[in-house]
Every structure is written in structure tokens, then in C-alpha cells.
Amino acid sequence: MNSYDVVVIGSGPGGYVSAIRCAQLGMRVAIIEKYSTMGGTCLNVGCIPSKALLDSSHHFEDAVKNFETHGIELPGAVKVNLEKMMQRKQGVVDQTTGGIDFLMKKNKIDTYQGVGKFKDATHIEIEGEEKLEIETKYTIIATGSKPTKLPFVSIDRERIISSTEALKLKEIPKHLIIIGGGVIGLELGQVYKRLGAEVTVIEYLDRIIPNMDQSLSKELNKVLKKQKFKINVSHKVTSVERTTNGVLVKAENKKGEIIEFAGDYCLVSVGRSAYTEGLNTDAAGVQLNERGQVKVNTHLQTTAQNIYAIGDVIKGAMLAHKAEEEGVFVAETIAGQKPHIDYNLIPGVVYTWPEVAAVGKTEETLKNEGISYKSGQFPMRALGRSRASMDLDGFVKILADAKTDEILGVHMIGARCADLIAEAVVAMEFRASAEDISRMSHAHPTFTEAIKEAALAATEDRALHI
Description:
Shape: globular
Distance between the termini: 69 Å
Number of helices: 14
CATH superfamily of the largest domain: FAD/NAD(P)-binding domain
Helix content: 25-40%
């Protein structure tokens, strides 16, 4: 029986990063993955393939709508080759997952393919092509999440689909109905809208991206409607049925009326749930909460002292970069170090175009907590770089403490905001004030100038370019 210092169950961003960090710290490490490729949901059917399709569809939309304005003339009509687009997407996935294989070999981490199952707190059975048992001092549960199902909806993977199927459709939908106005639904909706589909979004709550600052929800809603999305908020889906030619979705609006939506595909995108099936957690003394998530303390330690859990399988935002931070945190904790994570400073991003990004507290949170704050906002359309690139939508908003000027939250929507948010994270990690950012030189012309201008607006309401 092989014996290890640490065994990681799950090879997603949290799992493989924790395995690498444990190996760097001198431990003998193994990782267990039930699928044939490493990388988990993010690399295989999540972050990476969706961004590949978002980029491809963005290029297509630019060619159709913007090339002529830029003085670029094409010899004929621009067409979509969906099969080739999907092949490129898969190539990106294969290259990325292959990179994880290389990293495992480089760091001398043993890999096992199969389902990891606790026999007890120090022994794990692996059910793959053959049944194995390994011994370990510590285990890190990094089994991630799966798409949440609605109890009254049967996902047939043909017309009623999850995000997994939406990433490999063989045709462009004529009318894609999306249940859920969160990150995944809106990103995939934009992919197919650009390619020619009619897209209808049905959201139970009163706004899309409901976990982000309300101003971002309002602006993204406005932009998507301009892009011809049909958005229906405050609608409770009551049934989803297959029809002869597609699907029929019924939803109750806030007046109590039943509204019918007919389309050829329905994407159910109402969030994700912790995945613990098959782990046999009881045998190891690992407890789950009422939502099926693994219970952990502030050290990410489960109810079994030698077992830790990270990422989507525990409470908190389901983000790949959160899982990575937790993976490093646990590895260093096991090694006897004193690592730290500030969950308030883990950014969130929506990769639509314009992109949406945020870090820190929202205005709603500050109001609910009774924190006195000031706000500074700057529109992207006032930037020279925005006019040059024709990316005029959006703004940057900075919230700062009314007394100390310390930055409490940064919320932005616009071109390249997924990258711009890093400046805000760095600033807040070092507890910078709005004035600190306002006095920093930002290259011209860049999108980052909007951050400086928003800081100026928050400091003394003295933005220079509006």
C-alpha cells in the first residue's frame, strides 16, 4: 500500500494548486481525479472553454458590426463555422489540461484516476480500472461543485441543458431560453446571442447578477437590452417541458400571471451545488452542513482533524481563484506556517462584454452595516482609450470610508475590467486610500485612467475629465 503525507481528492484549480504547494514544501503527495483529464470543472467544462467561446464569438461580432467602421473591408459575408469554433475551444482545453499533467510530473506528484472514497480518516479507496487503497496523514477534499438542478425540471442534455452541454452544442440555437440571470447564464447567453440566437433570460430575483453591487446590475441590464437580450426579472419558473420543436417554459411574474416562453433550447443555470457524492465522508468523521457542503473551521479543517476541504465544496463564493488561495492556505497550514486569506478581497468577475468586476463591499452592504462612506464614479466613455477602441459602456465606482478615506469597495463595468480589478485588489490589500490612487500616475491613454478618475471623484469630487 502506497503511503503519502497528503492526498488531494479532486484536480480542479484548488486541488492541483494545493498538491503543487504541498510538494514544494517537501511533502509526498498524491492526487485523485475521477475523470480522464485533470483540471476539474474550471478547465474542462467551465472557466476555460467558456472564455474560449466568448473570445471567438467576440471576434465574429466585431467582424460583423465594427470592422467596416474601422476601415476594414472583407471580400464577402462573414459566416460562423460553429464546428471549427468548438474545435478551437477544445484545443484550448486540451492544451490547458495537458499543462496540469506536466505540472504533476514536474513536482513528482503521483496521480490516480478513479473515484476517491474514504475507508477511514487515514485510508482512501480508489475505484477506477482497478481498486486500490492508499494511506495518508492528511487529506484535502477539493471535489468542487456541479450544476444545481430545479426539482421539477428534467435535464435531458438535448434540449433542456446545463452549462456542460451549452459548451458543446452542434448548432446555434434559434431561441435560447436561460433560467438564471447569474454569471454562467449571461456569459453563455452572450456567446450565442453574438452568433445569431435570440436570447431570453428568466431570473427569479429582481435583478440580474444579484450578488454584485446594484449599480453594476442596472448598467449590465441596460447594456444587454441594447444588445437585444430579453430579460425578465422577478419571474418564478414553474415548469419546463419538451415540445415537438423545442421547449416551453412557464413562469409566474410578480403580478401572479403565468407567462409562457417558447424556444428550441433551455439552459438551466441557477447556480452550483457542492459535490460530495461517493466520498463516504461519514467513514472519516467528516460532517456536512444542511446544504451538503463540507463543514470547516477558520483553518479550513473539517470535523476530522487531519482532513481539510477547499473550494466549491465548502461555503463561500464558487470561484477558481478562491479555491487556489485556499489550496495554498491549507498546504502552508499543514506545513506549520501561518498563512492568511482575506475573503473580502477576493474579486468577482463576469466575462460578458463589457466585463463586470468588483472587490470589497457593495453600497448595499455598507448601508446595512451602518458604515459612513463616500462614492466616486467615472464613466468609461469619457476616456480617450474608450473612444479609440469604441468601448464606451460602463464606469468605475470607488467607495471609501467617509472619515479615513480608506477604500472599502471598487465596482466596475467596461472593457478589460477583469484585468483592471487587480489594481483595486492590490490597493485594498495595502489599505490604500482613494487619495493614494488619485495621486498615482496612470499611463495615458489606458482604461486604468478610469480608476484614477473615480478615486479623484471620491476624494474631493474633483475628477478631471468630466
